[in-house]
Amino acid sequence: MTFFGGLIAVVVLLSVFLGYRIFSKISDKRNYSGKTGGVMEKTFLFLIISLIMVSINALAFILSYSFFWEKAYRTYDEPQYIATVIGYKKEITKGKNFSNSSYSDRVIFFPKVEYTNANGKKIVKTLDITSNNPPALGEKIKITDADNQNSTNALELDWIMLGAGGIFTGVAAFFAVLLATYSSSYGMKKRIMWSFGAALALTLINVFCLVFIYLKQ
User: Fold this and answer.
1) What CA–CA distance (Å, rounded) separates 90 from 144?
2) Which of 198, 166, 165 is nearest to 180 (CA)?
3) Are 121 and 65 in contact (CB under 8 A)?
């Protein structure tokens, strides 16, 4: 199992555990005895709470790993190259323009780049990240890469979008901790303080990763 796969497993298991604790506290406050469909209601409630916890923890920690922590580590650990954009890899995702509209296909273009590694071998790979305005054909960009990676690590980033992403993951961490501490004996004021602390810590870590990547360009 890769480190990323292990991280996903830890996030899911921890989220289900926290979801069970929240579910238990809610169940203690409700009387299911004598109710028709009580078991089904409890099962549905547990699944919904667990799904919410998995989703919000994934937004906080898996996104942080994918867009900040791993990129900062690769920037530190891998050799840097100047690559040339030679094409694009097309991927189709589902999305919608408005909250009440139906989902439709969206085409995303990941730039393909070519560079010569330290052994003089020409390498062609896809960038690990893209944006609404991907680099043009023939454009030179800074990357890092290693033989065991499936994609190159782009160093020239959309700093505004990633900065907003750092704030977004911090907000997700706030609600993740706020929900997780529901099963504790803490009052709301202390829970909010803990949540603000977690949100600030995660935001600062992610912003530090961005600053590190910028300084290594």
Assistant:
1) 22
2) 198
3) no
CA 163 – CA 211 distance, rounded (Å): 10
Q: How confident is the model at residue 170, as a pLDDT?
A: 94
186 beta partners: none
pLDDT tens digits for range 140-189: 999 999 998 999 999 887 878 888 888 999 999 999 999 999 988 888 99
Predicted TM-score (pTM) of the model is: 0.82
SS (H, E, C) the chain: CCHHHHHHHHHHHHHHHHHHHHHHHHHHCCCCCCCCCHHHHHHHHHHHHHHHHHHHHHHHHHHHHHHHHHHHHHHHHCCEEEEEEEEEEEEEEEECCCCCCCCEEEEEEEEEEEEECCCCCEEEEEECCCCCCCCCCCCEEEEECCCCCCEEEECCCCHHHHHHHHHHHHHHHHHHHHHHHHHCCCCHHHHHHHHHHHHHHHHHHHHHHHHHHHHHC
Q: Is residue 95's pLDDT more than 80?
A: no
Pairwise CA distance, residues 59 & 88, whole Å: 27
Task: Give dist(CA 102, CA 203) in Å, integer.
Answer: 33
